[in-house]
Amino acid sequence: MKEVQDDVLKQQLINDSGYKAQFSVDVVRNTRLFYIAAGDYIVKEGSQPSYLFYLARGRAKLYATLPNGRISLIDFFCAPCFIGEIELVNKDHAPRAVQSIEECWCLALPMKPFRPQLLNDATFLRNLCVALSHKNYRNIVSLTQNQSFPLVNRLAAFILLTQHSDQYREKHTQAAEYMGVSYRHLLYVIAQFTRDGLLLKQKSGYAIINKPMLTALALEMDPENNFTDLLYRVTL
After folding, report:
1. Measured distance CA(27)–CA(47) in Å, rounded
2. What digits encode the pLDDT tens for the residues 147-200?
3. In what residue span(s) does the Cyclic nucleotide-binding domain sit (predicted)?
4. Alpha helix (H) ranges present in 119-210?
5. How far is 212 from 154, CA to CA, in rounded Å?
């Protein structure tokens, strides 16, 4: 992650992402711009972030290391959204890792000096509550989908959410755990996708060669929920 000094680009991202509307006061002067390459970290696990990030462009994933050493995927973020808002509200919260899926651009406000002001900003807190409620609803929908739909639909959605430049490279163990299925079942469906011409096996993962079909499978789950909004932003 590196800071970029480009006022024109920063202003463009502010305008396009609705950043100013998240606050009741003008914070643009104190807002910084960061570029995060694909695979880099926006927040490192266990390290309190120095900034409240606003993902203005790109996608990222949230995961945690469990006591047994296994890495567990938790959620996915798609611009625009805040990152680090839980640590802002609760200084004792143990930060989880947030890693970019593709190149990301973040607007960032220094957390320590602005914490008192933000926690007394009714506009910001209202927007934060709405955003957190959307995240919670999306997690509920995801849980319901895991219990109600075949793995072919859920895996198609997972591949689309985690792919970068039409390349899917997630670890099978993490993918299986996230979707609540056995490692063997996951490999069976991936092999099915390969036989059906949706994926092409490569040394470093899989190339997506039929994205429309993957998208159709994913959207069978429910074309009107929050997941669909996220998926459209990924596939369009």
Report:
1. 25
2. 778 999 999 989 998 999 899 999 998 899 888 889 999 999 999 999 999 999
3. 35-97
4. 122-148, 151-162, 172-179, 183-195
5. 15
